[in-house]
Amino acid sequence: MNNKKLILVGLIFILLGIILGAMGAHYLETIGIVEEQINSFKVGTSYLFYNGLGLLALAGVVDKFDFGILSPFRSIFWGTLLFSVSIFLLVLGKPLLNLNLGKFIGPVTPIGGLIMILGWTVLLVKFLRTYRS
Predict the structure, then answer these.
(1) Is the pTM of this model over 0.90?
(2) Which stretch is the leader sequence (predicted)?
(3) Measured between alpha carbons, how far is 16 from 75 in angstroms, rounded to an integer?
(4) Dist. CA 78–CA 36, nearest whole Å
(5) Which of the residues 28, 54, 83, 126 has an alpha carbon 20 to 30 A from that of 90?
(6) Among 83, 71, 59, CA closest to 119
(7) Over the stretch 41-81, which tens digit does the pLDDT of each residue have?
Protein backbone atom coordinates (compact mmCIF):
# COMPACT_ATOMS: atom_id res chain seq x y z
CA MET A 1 0.00 0.00 0.00
CA ASN A 2 1.38 3.36 -1.01
CA ASN A 3 1.75 5.91 1.83
CA LYS A 4 1.06 8.68 -0.68
CA LYS A 5 -2.39 7.22 -1.36
CA LEU A 6 -3.19 7.18 2.37
CA ILE A 7 -2.00 10.75 2.72
CA LEU A 8 -3.88 11.93 -0.38
CA VAL A 9 -7.18 10.34 0.65
CA GLY A 10 -6.71 11.50 4.24
CA LEU A 11 -6.13 15.09 3.15
CA ILE A 12 -9.07 15.04 0.72
CA PHE A 13 -11.38 13.69 3.44
CA ILE A 14 -10.22 16.39 5.85
CA LEU A 15 -10.59 19.15 3.26
CA LEU A 16 -14.09 17.98 2.30
CA GLY A 17 -15.01 17.67 5.98
CA ILE A 18 -13.99 21.28 6.59
CA ILE A 19 -15.64 22.68 3.45
CA LEU A 20 -18.88 20.77 3.94
CA GLY A 21 -18.84 21.51 7.67
CA ALA A 22 -18.67 25.23 6.90
CA MET A 23 -21.48 24.80 4.40
CA GLY A 24 -23.53 23.04 7.06
CA ALA A 25 -22.89 25.77 9.58
CA HIS A 26 -23.54 28.77 7.32
CA TYR A 27 -25.64 27.78 4.31
CA LEU A 28 -28.07 24.97 5.06
CA GLU A 29 -30.45 27.06 7.18
CA THR A 30 -30.75 29.60 4.36
CA ILE A 31 -32.21 26.95 2.04
CA GLY A 32 -34.72 25.70 4.59
CA ILE A 33 -32.86 22.75 6.07
CA VAL A 34 -34.12 22.05 9.59
CA GLU A 35 -31.87 21.59 12.63
CA GLU A 36 -32.31 17.81 12.77
CA GLN A 37 -31.09 17.50 9.19
CA ILE A 38 -28.24 19.94 9.84
CA ASN A 39 -27.18 17.71 12.73
CA SER A 40 -27.21 14.70 10.39
CA PHE A 41 -25.14 16.66 7.89
CA LYS A 42 -22.63 17.42 10.68
CA VAL A 43 -22.31 13.70 11.38
CA GLY A 44 -21.39 13.10 7.73
CA THR A 45 -18.76 15.85 7.80
CA SER A 46 -17.37 14.63 11.13
CA TYR A 47 -16.86 11.11 9.84
CA LEU A 48 -15.08 12.42 6.76
CA PHE A 49 -12.81 14.43 9.02
CA TYR A 50 -12.18 11.65 11.57
CA ASN A 51 -11.40 9.05 8.94
CA GLY A 52 -9.14 11.53 7.14
CA LEU A 53 -7.17 12.01 10.36
CA GLY A 54 -7.13 8.25 10.88
CA LEU A 55 -5.73 7.66 7.41
CA LEU A 56 -3.02 10.29 7.96
CA ALA A 57 -2.08 8.62 11.23
CA LEU A 58 -2.08 5.26 9.47
CA ALA A 59 0.30 6.64 6.82
CA GLY A 60 2.71 7.50 9.61
CA VAL A 61 2.84 3.98 11.06
CA VAL A 62 2.03 1.66 8.14
CA ASP A 63 5.74 0.94 7.56
CA LYS A 64 5.88 -0.64 11.00
CA PHE A 65 3.22 -3.23 10.09
CA ASP A 66 4.24 -6.66 8.84
CA PHE A 67 0.93 -7.14 7.02
CA GLY A 68 -0.86 -5.53 4.12
CA ILE A 69 -3.54 -2.88 4.62
CA LEU A 70 -5.06 -2.63 1.14
CA SER A 71 -8.27 -4.46 2.09
CA PRO A 72 -8.90 -2.46 5.29
CA PHE A 73 -8.05 0.76 3.44
CA ARG A 74 -10.60 -0.01 0.74
CA SER A 75 -13.26 -0.73 3.37
CA ILE A 76 -12.48 2.49 5.22
CA PHE A 77 -12.47 4.49 1.99
CA TRP A 78 -15.69 3.11 0.51
CA GLY A 79 -17.45 2.87 3.85
CA THR A 80 -16.70 6.51 4.61
CA LEU A 81 -17.88 7.62 1.17
CA LEU A 82 -21.08 5.58 1.31
CA PHE A 83 -21.83 6.74 4.84
CA SER A 84 -21.10 10.45 4.43
CA VAL A 85 -22.27 10.97 0.86
CA SER A 86 -25.55 9.17 1.54
CA ILE A 87 -26.19 11.55 4.47
CA PHE A 88 -25.39 14.55 2.26
CA LEU A 89 -27.78 13.30 -0.42
CA LEU A 90 -30.52 12.65 2.12
CA VAL A 91 -30.21 16.18 3.48
CA LEU A 92 -29.69 18.02 0.18
CA GLY A 93 -31.72 15.89 -2.23
CA LYS A 94 -35.07 17.59 -1.69
CA PRO A 95 -34.05 21.27 -1.52
CA LEU A 96 -31.39 21.21 -4.25
CA LEU A 97 -32.53 18.44 -6.58
CA ASN A 98 -36.23 18.33 -5.74
CA LEU A 99 -35.86 14.59 -5.13
CA ASN A 100 -36.94 12.57 -2.12
CA LEU A 101 -34.06 10.10 -1.96
CA GLY A 102 -34.83 8.61 1.46
CA LYS A 103 -36.30 5.37 0.15
CA PHE A 104 -33.29 4.65 -2.05
CA ILE A 105 -30.39 6.28 -0.24
CA GLY A 106 -31.54 5.79 3.38
CA PRO A 107 -30.40 2.15 3.60
CA VAL A 108 -26.96 3.06 2.21
CA THR A 109 -25.95 5.02 5.33
CA PRO A 110 -25.83 2.11 7.78
CA ILE A 111 -24.27 -0.16 5.16
CA GLY A 112 -21.50 2.40 4.65
CA GLY A 113 -21.06 2.67 8.40
CA LEU A 114 -20.73 -1.10 8.72
CA ILE A 115 -18.18 -1.25 5.91
CA MET A 116 -16.19 1.54 7.56
CA ILE A 117 -16.30 -0.25 10.94
CA LEU A 118 -15.26 -3.48 9.22
CA GLY A 119 -12.19 -1.79 7.72
CA TRP A 120 -10.96 -0.45 11.06
CA THR A 121 -11.80 -3.75 12.77
CA VAL A 122 -9.86 -5.81 10.23
CA LEU A 123 -6.92 -3.46 10.65
CA LEU A 124 -7.05 -3.89 14.43
CA VAL A 125 -7.35 -7.68 14.21
CA LYS A 126 -4.44 -7.88 11.76
CA PHE A 127 -2.35 -5.76 14.10
CA LEU A 128 -3.26 -7.82 17.17
CA ARG A 129 -2.37 -11.04 15.36
CA THR A 130 1.12 -9.76 14.61
CA TYR A 131 1.66 -7.81 17.83
CA ARG A 132 4.70 -8.80 19.82
CA SER A 133 5.52 -7.00 23.03
Answers:
(1) yes
(2) none
(3) 19
(4) 25
(5) 54
(6) 71
(7) 999 999 999 999 999 999 999 999 999 999 999 999 999 99
